[in-house]
Amino acid sequence: MVTVVLSTLNSFLNYSGNFSKWYLMVISLLINLGSPVKEVRRASVLCLQALSGVVSHFHLVINHLVPKTEEITSDVTYVAQDLATLFEELQREKKLKSHQKLSETLKNLLNCVYSCPSYIAKDLVKVLKEVNNEVCGPLDLLLPMAEQLLEKIQKEPTAVLKDEAIILHLTLGKYNECSASLLHKDPKSLDIFVKAVHTTKELCTGMPTIQITALEKITKPFFAAISDEKVQQKLLCMLFDLLVNCKNSHCAQTISSVFKGISVNAEQVRIELEPPDKTKSLGTIQQTRRQKMQQKKSQDLESVQEVGGSYWQRVTLILELLQHKKKLKNPQILIPTLFNLLSRSLEHLPAEQGNMEYTKQLILSCLLNICQKLSPDGGRIPKDVLDEEKFNVELIVQCIRVSEMPQTHHHALLLLGTVAGIFPDKVLHNIMSIFTFMGANVMRLDDTYSFQVINKTVKMIIPALIQVSCLYTISRVVVKVIHVFVDALPHVPEHRRLPILAQLVDTLGAERFLWVLLLLLFEQYVTKTVLVAACGEKDAILEADTEFWISVCCEFSVQHQIQSLMNILQYLIKLPEEKEEEEKLVSTKSESQEEMLQIFNIDTHTSKQLRHFKFLSVSFMSQLLASSHFIRKVMLHEILTSLLCFRLLEIVLGYINAVAQSMEKNTDTLTVKFWRALLSKAYDTLDKVNALLPTETFVAVVRGLLDNPLPSVRRKALDLLNNKLQQNTSWKKKIVYRFLKLVPVLLAIVQHKKKSVEEQAINRQTALYTLKLLCKNFGAENPEHFVPVLNTAVRLIAPETKEDKNVLGSALLCVAEVASTLEALAIPQLPSLMPSLLTTMKNTSELVSGEVYLLSALAALQKVVETLPHFISPYLEGVLSQVVHLEKITSEMGSASQANVRVTSLKKTLATTLSPRVLLPAINRTYKQIEKNWKNHMGPFMSILQEHIGVMKKEELTSHQSQLTVFFLEALDFRAQHSENDLEEIGKTENCIIDCLVAMVVKLSEVTFRPLFFKLFDWAKTEDAPKDRLLTFYNLADCIAEKLKGLFTLFAGHLVKPFADTLNQVNISKTDEAFFDSDKDPEKCCLLLQFILNCLYKIFLFDTQHFISKERAEALMMPLVDQLENRLGGDARFQERVTKHLIPCLAQFSVAMADDSLWKPLNYQILLKTRDSSPKVRFAALITVLALAEKLKENYIVLLPESIPFLAELMEDECEEVERQCQKTIQQLEAILGEPLQSYF
After folding, report:
1. For 514-557, what is each residue's pLDDT tens digit?
2. How far separated are the first and last CA of the chain, in Å rounded?
3. What is the 3 state secondary structure string of 877-935?
4. Are 144 and 121 in contact (CB under 8 A)?
5. Which of 143, 704, 945, 1147 is the most buried (most CB within 10 A)?
6. pLDDT at position 38 over 80
7. Residue 601 has what DSSP assignment?
8. Does residue 135 register a pLDDT over 50?
9. Which GO terms describe its cellular component (predicted)?
């Protein structure tokens, strides 16, 4: 096909008549070089090769393209790029002839656009879209077509073809940096561009408007290539005007992007911001004095009205673009204009004020942006760049005052913060206005942005002020600034207060101004908070405020806090005692004192407020020094703070001396109470400072105070020492030696007596406590120093001495600590100590009257027993007696009381620390004593033995078993010896003994337990033995069966016949003889039955070795079944015994049999009881049948046939209760067996 085309082409060229129109074919071939089809591009190149030999207007283009056959064929975009390369030589070609040829060729090509149809012209312009050159460029050749198309769009937009629209877009694409110079050389090109920018109609769906395409051509290179500033200005003006009138968001966004991208000179923007000529001079400083009077007022109002909203709308839109503009040359040029605009915005009428707030914010934001551009580091700007006089700080402050919008305030404050570093002197003159406004407005807002504005303002303004101000001036200014913040504090959101004050003081410098803040906070509380607080809320408010003040202090280093406390004390010392005295000394005040007194102005406050201020200041110091946060910081920086603390101590002592002198001076005045309270607080502060001192210095100070003649001072010294000793610290040997040297001094206080008995008793008590703490800390490694302490304490608690009870309590605690620490060194004091201690514990009335005294005695006894268990055997009997005695007393105080807990602990100590060879003989001897008062003492006594048996080793138990057996045989005879006493009380006491014996039984082996069990059995069953022993034995058997469970069946075989015999002997349906020779025979028989039935139930329950053989079952069956007729004790006891004991025993008995041949006689014998004459017996038998069925479940089916007749009889029983129970029983049997029984009846 290509061959045919080439042949036709040659024929066409050889025909002279077609030669004049050959260019049409060239244009077509050039267009096809950009075809997306590869073969079309290849064919087009071959055709051009055929034309390459023909001389024509396009031979330069043809000859340039033909060698690029492969490139054009491979890349669809290559032809456009290659043509661009060809015509770029127009820019570089120096030879006139070659330049003319290229230029003519380009003109011929572009002229074809006008003569061709639009669809061909479109493709031709596409091929030439990369061609850009300034001289004879494509833009000036295409301008007529662009103009025609734009006119056509305005007149008949619907008649514009899509290809024509594309041609217009491509033509606008020729507006670039290469053709930018054409805009000022050919005004027509600029007009066409402006006309395109204002063409908003959409020509084709999916194609951008001509307006957007034209705007997008205003790029940074294009705008920079425009050498004529007037053209640039015209384009800027066009953009801003278009933005004002634009209603299309896409257009507005495009304009914003265009302005953001181009680099603009600030002078050009300034011109656009200037108002019309009539009002251009408004607000300038060149006005004459006459204009500033009446003429200025009328001119202002007129100008405001004439300028109207359109001007401010345009300004606002320009400022929106400008506020974040980065590519701005000479931005300082805009500053006077922006201040002029700000001045104008402040002159608007109140009705328009709300509309201008946003404009003000934009102006302030632009000023901030310019300042940050001129001074990125926040430092000063050279005068040749920006004159200080052009920056109107007063106008910014006025903007803050006039505006009510928080956002405007924020912008203004941020600007002032930046300006403070650039022009600090100008900001200094307005500092109080700025911070007063912040306190009244911004600080009250509860949002993160406002908080950041405050922080940034403080951070930027204050350092600049400090840098330019002298010390005296800045101190005065800073006091005022801090005062503003303190006054505003009640209105600041609570969670913002601490960060704001911390930021303020941190910026000012905590070492210089933290103390000023604290004093101003105290002054505010004294003069304002107290006045508005209700009477009942003052303490709570003061507590909350104090916590807040401490929190403020703890935001800073401990060194700064201590320095601030020293400054506060020095300031308080300089304050006069009373206001009247201040008035007398007005003429003698020094300049420095006057400066200090500005914090708390004496002239504006009352004498009461002055006293309150002093007291509050000292009270706070004491609380701060005791706070956990402060102490933690001191511990972390102990080396750094030690010197500061010592200096603080000196200042505190000086202040105490000054307060003491004032107190003496005012002894006869009404203010003496205040001075005493202030002195007490000062002493309290001294205590807290002492606690911070290095230990060596502290011990020396305390040693001196202990020799002070005043008892109160000695007591304070002891309290200080106690507080120090209670700190969990590891002391160096040198410091320990210094502490130990205080022991003789403290002993002298303990042994010494003066006239002031009460005061001295407190001091002696405190000294004993101090000795206790010293021993606790240092006694283990230095025991010899505390032997005299134990001797002194033992002499104090001797019965013959009559000491104060509190002193005795402290002496007992001291004995407890020292004895446990000295260990063997305390043995020589036992003969004196133990009798005194036991005598003290015998005095029950004194012990009960003071729980602390009782606790002290118990602590001393316990420590001695724990420490010297092998040396107290001579006193052990007395110790046991007193412990058992105190158990009753302390139990009445409650199980959770400290005394009861201490007694329990002492019992445990006795039971677990003493060896059996020491304790068991004492137990035997003590038992004979406490038996006289067994009701209160037997339980506690037996609990000691029980716990001791529990910790005995196997070999110890074996060696002492015979001794324990003799003891228990004697103790078990307790019931027989008290047979006529209340059975319930006897039972409780007996259970204590049995529990103790069972504790021993569970530790014995079968071999050792069997003889013991038979011995107990013989003890109960001998002929001459009281029958009450049977009660004890069967109770014991029941308890042992519960503990040993299945193991008890190994020994229970011997009990079967005695159980059966006893059951028959106490069955009143079989015999009328009394079993016990006592008036309480029925009660005892009921109790005996209960023990037997309970023991049998446990044997049956835990039987896993088929203990119930046929013989044993037959031996027990009738005695047990016959108990259904035994109405011993009356109906109530009979019913309780049958329900709780007998029926469970019979039911479990049937389970233990595990043989249906034995079930039948058992069931039958029970059924026979349903024919008893007594309805209660019949009722009991009926319940027993049901219990058997519940235990045997489906196995009971074999017993059902013989049960039916009996149940049928009971269905018609004369007793309604029995009849109803029978019906219930049948229903439950149906549920158990799973089949209906009604058919049997």
Report:
1. 888 888 888 888 887 777 665 667 778 888 888 988 888 988 88
2. 119
3. HHHHHHHHHHHHHHHCCCCCCHHHHHHHHHHHHHHHHCCHHHHHHHHHHHHHHHHHHHH
4. no
5. 945
6. no
7. -
8. no
9. 90S preribosome; small-subunit processome; t-UTP complex
Backbone phi, psi, residue 586, to 5°: -60, -40
Instruction: Decide if 556 contacts 630 (C-beta within 8 A).
Output: no
Polymer length in residues for the chain = 1241
Q: Kindly state whether residues 147 and 55 are assigned to the same domain.
A: no
Euclidean distance between CA atoms 1138 and 1132, whole angstroms: 10
Residue 1125 pLDDT > 80: yes
Domain membership flag for residue 55: yes
Query: Could you give the CA distance from residue 565 to residue 515 in angstroms, rounded to a whole number?
Result: 7
In a domain, 1053, yes or no: no
Same-domain status, 154 and 42: no
Decide if 1028 contacts 1013 (C-beta within 8 A): no
Find tokens 């916590």 and name the residue. Answer: 547
Distance CA 1170, CA 1185 (A): 10
Q: Which long-range contacts (CB under 8 A, 24 or more apart) does 65-74 make?
A: 65/33, 69/42, 69/45, 72/33, 72/41, 72/45, 73/38, 73/41, 73/42, 73/45, 74/38
Q: Over 50: is that where the pLDDT of 955 sits? A: yes
Q: What is the mean pLDDT of residues 1119-1130?
A: 90
Q: Would you call 1100 exposed, middle or buried from its count of C-beta atoms within 10 A (0-12, 13-18, 19+)? A: buried
Residue with tokens 């923007």: 269
What amino acid occupies position 559?
Q
Does residue 695 have a pLDDT over 90?
Answer: no
Mean pLDDT (whole number) for 87-101: 59
Q: For residue 790, which of 763, 820, 764, 761 has the smallest C-alpha distance? A: 820
Once rounded to an integer, what is the mean pLDDT over residues 444-458?
Answer: 63
Domain boundary among 229, 262, 295: 262
Binned at pLDDT 50, 70 and 90, residue 279 comes out as very low
Helices (H), 93-246: 96-115, 118-127, 138-155, 162-172, 182-185, 187-197, 210-216, 220-225, 229-245
User: How high is the pLDDT of residue 458?
Assistant: 66
Residue with tokens 């105190």: 886
What letter does residue 181 receive in the DSSP assignment? T
Domain extent at residue 143:
139-262
Determine, yes or no, domain membership for 969: no
Scored b (16 or more CB within 10 A) or e, 545-558 reads bbebbbebbbbbeb
Which of 176-190, 354-368, 503-517, 994-1008 holds the top average pLDDT? Answer: 994-1008
| CB-neighbour burial class of residue 755 (10 A; exposed 0-12, middle 13-18, buried 19+) | exposed
Q: Which structure tokens are listed for 326?
A: 């980065």
Q: What is the pLDDT of residue 22?
A: 61
Looking only at Cα atoms, what is the longest distance across the chain? 168
Separation CA 28–CA 26 (nearest Å):
5
Q: Which amino acid is at 432?
A: M
Contact 238, 191 (CB under 8 A): no
What is the C-alpha separation between 1118 and 155, in angstroms, rounded? 131
Contact at 8 Å (CB) between 614 and 519?
A: no
Query: Long-range contacts for 1082-1085 (Cβ within 8 Å, ≥24 apart)?
Result: 1082/1128, 1082/1129, 1083/983, 1083/1129, 1084/983, 1084/1028, 1084/1031, 1085/1128, 1085/1129
541 shares its domain with 688? yes
- Nearest-CA neighbor of 934 among 299, 1214, 926, 901? 926
Last residue of a domain, one of 208, 236, 262: 262
Q: What are phi and psi of 329, to 5 degrees?
A: -90, 140
For residue range 1076-1111, what is the model confidence (pLDDT) as tens digits? 877 788 888 999 999 999 999 999 999 888 888 889
If asked whether residues 741 and 669 sit together in one domain, one would say: no
Q: What is the DSSP string of 673-696?
A: HHHHHHHHHHHHHHHHHHHHS-HH
DSSP assignment letter at 1172: S
